[in-house]
Amino acid sequence: MLSRSPLDRAEELRRDTAALTAGWSTASVLRVDATGRIPVADGGVAMVPAAEVAEAPPENAVFLGRADGRHLWAVPVETLSGDSTDLRAFDDVLTDTSAGIVVTAVALLNWHRSARFSARDGSPTRPSAAGWSRVSEATGHEEWPRSDPAIIVLVHDGADRVLLARQPSWPERRMSVLAGFVEAGESLETCVVREVREEVGLGVDRIEYLGSQPWPFPRSIMIGFAAQADPAADLEFTDGEIAEARWFHRDEVEAALAAGDWAASTSAPLLLPGSISIARAMLESWVARPVR
């Protein structure tokens, strides 16, 4: 869902101070609080005219791009008044454009909150390029936003069963596919093999790329795969990240998808992630068209 944004990022404007200043008068601004919550109104993302924020782009504002000829910005705030929500609770009310706006804003502002000092020399940094980089005040060294790659993998048996797991912090019945961060010097495919073995003790093969999705919690990119494993092999939870895991039949997964998601008030025996997550898209696709 979060991969579909048609937002024009207008990279050519990020260092054009005159153009950004001129566009500010008709711009729209998204406020994002320190926990990543955003304001909502009428079931959608609520943005405000830039004139309500400042006369010109503040130093801590980030330029997100253009939509319908209008500049779009985001600014950090400590708290929000009125209705607000976390991106993960938006579900399918986001439009394609608003999904791109929110994901970019939350990811960039998360990076700024943790990059106030240079990773190279420890000196204070200040925003530059309309929020798309930070510059060391001591040396002028420029640093850019990070995206941490993480694999997410649907492990199946080559037929009608899929492996789902629950982290220790999740309530009973709440389960999903496996995921983990890519380590330094590691390919994506090698990460798939390592993470599955570490988390549930299984070897996998027939690794297949499925798609990707930005995931700004805090600033990740989720890279989706399918892989095949032997359902007769013993499960071993060796790294402590998985509390339980088991194989589910396609019919069970289909029923769980129909019952809703993690937030649903239901007594269903299996609860699956919401539609904003690539995990749900992977499971929906597997139910509709099995990976072979």
TrEMBL record:
Coiled coil: none annotated. Keywords: Hydrolase, Magnesium, Metal-binding, NAD. Residues 145-270 form the Nudix hydrolase domain. GO terms for molecular function: hydrolase activity. It catalyses: a 5'-end NAD(+)-phospho-ribonucleoside in mRNA + H2O = a 5'-end phospho-adenosine-phospho-ribonucleoside in mRNA + beta-nicotinamide D-ribonucleotide + 2 H(+). Its EC number is 3.6.1.22. PROSITE patterns: NUDIX, NUDIX_BOX. It comes from the Bacteria. Its cofactor is Zn(2+); Mg(2+). Belongs to the Nudix hydrolase family. NudC subfamily. This is NAD(+) diphosphatase. It comes from Rhodococcoides corynebacterioides. The lineage of its organism: Bacteria, Bacillati, Actinomycetota, Actinomycetes, Mycobacteriales.
